[in-house]
Amino acid sequence: GYAKTNGIQGIGLYGELNEPEIPQYRTAKSIIKTLEKLTYKKFGDTVKLDVMAERVDNEIHG
């Protein structure tokens, strides 16, 4: 994997959470996209994460 080929013992990816008590779907999408770039692999469609993020926004902001 990426870590092994680059002499890294481990790797951690962190996403910014604005309000940890609220689901952070955009942060999840960002982490998935970063993993895709690092591994040169696709992990699938992230449209559902966009839809869920929009729902959360609508609930919070009306």
- Spans where pLDDT lies below 50 across 5 or more residues: none
Backbone shape: elongated
**SS-derived structural category:** mainly alpha
Tally of discrete structural domains: 1
Q: What is the tally of beta strands?
A: 0
Strand content: under 5%
Radius of gyration: 15 Å
Summed up, the helix count is 3
Helix content: 40-55%
Q: What is the residue-averaged pLDDT? A: 91
Termini separation comes to: 44 Å
Q: What order do the helices and strands follow?
A: HHH
Short description:
This protein is mostly helical and 62 residues long.
Account of the protein in words:
With 62 residues, the chain is mainly α. The chain has one domain. Helices cover 55% and strands 0% of the residues.
What labels would you give this structure?
62 residues, mainly alpha, 3 helices
Describe the secondary structure blueprint for this structure.
Elements: H1 2-5, H2 25-39, H3 47-61
Helix pairs in contact: 2-3
